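Issue 218. Parser rejects a valid record. Input:
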Amino acid sequence: MSAPWLMVGASFLFATMGVCVKLASATYTAGEIVFYRGLVGALVITGLTRWRGGSLRTPVPAMHFWRSAVGVGSLMLWFYAIGALPLATAMTLNYMSSVWMALFLIGGAVLLGSARVDGRLVAAVLVGFAGVALVLRPTIDDRQLWHGLAGLVSGMLAALAYLQVTALGRAGEPESRIVFYFSLGSMVAGAATMGVHGASAHTARGLALLLAIGTLATVAQMMMTRAYAIGRTLSNASLQYLGIVFAFVYGVLLFDDPVTWMALAGMALIVAAGITATLLRARATPPDARGPATES
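Output the parser choked on:
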C-alpha cells in the first residue's frame, strides 16, 4: 500500500479509536482506558517482535522513561478531553502539536540569542492559537472548560513526545521498541490511577470497546510509521489532518455534535497553521532528524 493511502487509513483508524474512547468514557475513567490501550499494544508488539526475531532490550532506558512519561501524560489528557468535548474539538486540540513545535523552535531561537526568528513560524503559531479560540468558544460551556484545557495541553505534550521520539530514532531505537515501552508506560500510569480511584466493573460492551481502542491505536501507529518510512514528510503530515475531518463526521452522525461556522473556521486555521509549521520545520531540519509522528 502506498504512503498516502497508509496515512488516510491511519487517520481514519485514529478517528474511529476516538469514537470508541468517547463511548468507553461512559463506563471507564481515562486512566483505565489508557491502561488497556497500553496492554493491547504491548501484547501486539511483543508478538510481532518475537515473530520477526527481534529484541525489546534497550540500551537507553532513561530516554524511554522520559518519552513514555510525556507521551502517556498527553494520551491521558487527550482521552479525558474526548470524554466530554465534541469529538472533532478534542481531536483538533491534540493535533495542535505541530503548532506547539513551532513555538518551541521560536523559543529556542530566542533563548540561544539567534539574530533572526522566522516570521513565518511566528505567523503560523498566531494563526494556530486564533484557531483554538474559534474552536473552543462555540463548542464548550463552563463545565467543559477543564476538558478544553486538557485537550490543549495534550497537544503540547504530544509535541514534546515527538521530539523525544526523534532523539530515540537518532539513538538507533526501532519504532517497535519505542511503541513497546510507551505501551508499558501506559500500563503503569493507568494501573496507578486505578489503584487510587478503583477499577470499574466490566461488561461485554465495555471489554469490546477497550479491545477495539487498543487494536485500532496499534494498527494505526504501525500504518503511520510505515507511511513516514516510505513517503514524503509534508505529504504525510498534511494527510494526517484528515483525522479531524473523520472525527467531525463521526461527531455529527453519532453524537449530534454542534456544527458552527466558528468551529469550522477554527479547525481550518489550525490545519493550515500545522501544515505550514511542518513545511517550515521540514525545510530547516536535516533528513536524518525527521521522524514519524506518533499517537502521543
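Fixed in the parser; the record now loads. Residues 3-289 form one domain.
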